[in-house]
Structures are given as C-alpha cells and as structure tokens.
Write a structure and sequence with these properties.
The chain contains 7 helices and 10 strands. The chain is an alpha/beta fold.
Length: about 220
C-alpha cells in the first residue's frame, strides 16, 4: 500500500455532493494534499448517490476543472478522473447493461471504487464483484473499516477479499475520525496486510489536520 503518493479517493469537485463547497475549498484541499507529498489525486464525486448519475465524459470534464484550479494556484499535483460508486440497484443496472464506468488503472489493470451503504447491510456484494471481474475490472471497496463491526464482521470482509475485492483505507480512520470501532478495524486490517490502497476521502479543508496525523501514523505502522 502506497503511503499516499497517490490518493484514490477525494471529493474535490466543487458543489456536486457533500464534498468541496466551491473552488476555494478545492484549492485549499489540493494545497494540503500537495504539502503532504501527494503527487496524484483521483477526483471522486459520489456517483449514483445525491442524485448524481454522471457519464464518464462528465466525470472527465469535472476532473479537468479541478486540474485547472490546481494549475491556476501553481500546485504541482496531477488530477485524474474518478468516482465513488454507490453500491445499489443503479450500479447493478449499469453492470447488467454494460454501461461505461469510470475506472482507474493500477498495476496494469482496471479498478472501480465502490462505497457500500453505512446504514444497512449490503446484499449481493460477491455477485457485483463477479460481474465486474467478468469485465476484467477489479472492485475496490471504499473504507471497509467503517462497516466493522456495525454491519460486517472482519471475517465477512475477508470473504469479500477472497472473492476478488480489494480494500481502500480511509487514512483518517487511523486517528479516530470515524470512531473508535473503525479505528480498531483499520488497525487490524493493516496488521494483516489486507489493504491494497489508501485514500484521504477529503470532503473539507478542515479535515487536513487529521489527514496529516493519520499519514504519520501510517508511516509508523507500515
């Protein structure tokens, strides 16, 4: 797992979800990421949630807007398009219809970032993973530590890994940003080497302090 040289999960697009509220927020978050040594960041607005149903082309345009903000601010950080796909009927429909999805490249293969519901158990996780793998796309589960122990046991998470899913750590989980249970789960998953990716999941500039502390903690643990 990279120590956040690449951040695959950040809500940087202004005013499309519960992330950046405007260009000033976006620039401040980009500046903070660059100061932490992030060289590449995936702009990942919520997809199939908050009434968002963007095309791949629209997501690329949004990332281009974030990229221009970075350039105008004189920041040396690469911005690439992405999305945090909400696990549900719309995602399943897109898969069954073979719709284009906003994937990202890693280690020579395509990956898709997916968020499971945090307020109810998700059914069909293995099936969605199978459908993606049939398209040669690896499913990546965003912040699984937030599911444990409320909605999924660590054993269930490991079962999803065995079926082909990869995991993305929310770095701020390591310093209690999502509660003590999520912190404990994150530390246990790190200890056994289950995470493939790390991300900031930044929504606000005010979260940069926790991210800085979390990155230092990850360096200590890994």
């Amino acid at each position: 797992m990279e120590l956040l040289c690449t951040d695959i999960h950040a809500h940087l697009v202004p005013a499309v979800d519960d992330g950046s509220r405007g260009p000033l927020d976006t620039v401040e978050m980009l500046r903070g990421l660059a100061a932490l040594g992030v060289e590449r960041v995936h702009s990942t607005p919520h997809q199939f949630r908050f009434r968002n149903d963007f095309t791949v082309e629209e997501l690329e345009i949004q990332a281009g807007g974030v990229r221009r903000l970075a350039e105008q601010a004189g920041l040396v950080i690469e911005v690439v398009p992405g999305a945090e796909h909400y696990f549900g009927e719309r995602l399943l429909d897109a898969l069954q219809k073979g719709e284009p999805l906003c994937t990202f490249e890693s280690e020579g293969g395509r990956h898709l970032l997916i968020e499971l519901p945090l307020n109810q158990p998700a059914a069909g996780v293995r099936r969605v993973g199978e459908l993606l793998l049939e398209r040669e796309i690896t499913p990546v589960m965003a912040h699984p530590e937030r599911l444990v122990p409320r909605l999924a046991s660590l054993e269930r998470v490991r079962d999803w890994i065995a079926s082909g899913w990869k995991l993305q750590l929310n770095l701020p989980s390591l310093v209690g940003a999502h509660g003590r249970d999520a912190e404990a789960a994150a530390r246990e998953l790190i200890a056994v080497g289950e995470y493939a990716f790390a991300g900031s999941d930044l929504h606000r500039p005010s979260e940069l302090d926790a991210l800085m502390r979390a990155r230092a903690e990850l360096r200590r643990l890994v």
